[in-house]
Amino acid sequence: MLKIVLVFLLIAGLSACATVGSSNGGAAYRDANTVFTSPDTDVEKVAAVNKWAHDRGAKLIWVNYPQKPKSASSAPGASGTSN
User: Fold this and answer.
1) Which of 37, 40, 21 is nearest to 29 (CA)?
2) 35 pairs with which residues across the strands?
3) Is the pLDDT of residue 19 over 70?
4) 3-state secondary structure of 30
5) Is the pLDDT of residue 38 over 70?
6) Predicted pLDDT at 58
7) pTM of the prediction?
8) Non-local CB neighbours of 73 within 8 Å, separated by 6+ positions
9) Residue 28 CA: distances (Å) to CA of 24, 33, 51, 61
10) CA–CA separation, 30 vs 24, rounded Å?
């Protein structure tokens, strides 16, 4: 009886891990082994920092990915004329 309970708990635990997925509800952008949730993510900067950390044996965890710089013409309120 104990074996049956242990097998059941093992299967339940493994199936719970298998159902954990992306919480963004949409398609993710992939670059090698990294998942990006926005097309505005600065992929080149992420790759450079990841390489720098890897070369030095550091473990890197991104909390917020860096965003691509916004151009001056696409900034809110930019009219293209100077005052």
Assistant:
1) 37
2) 30
3) no
4) strand
5) yes
6) 93
7) 0.44
8) 80
9) 8, 12, 22, 18
10) 14
- State yes or no: pLDDT of 22 exceeds 50: no
Distance CA 26, CA 37 (A): 8
What value does the mean pLDDT take over residues 62-74? 81
Q: d(Cα 83, Cα 64) in Å, to the nearest integer?
A: 36
Cα Rg of the chain, angstroms: 22
Using the 8-state DSSP alphabet, how is residue 12 labeled? H
Buried b (16+ CB within 10 A) or exposed e, 51-79: eeeeeeeeeeeeeebeeeeeeeeeeeeee
Q: How confident is the model over 47-60, as pLDDT tens digits?
A: 999 999 999 999 98
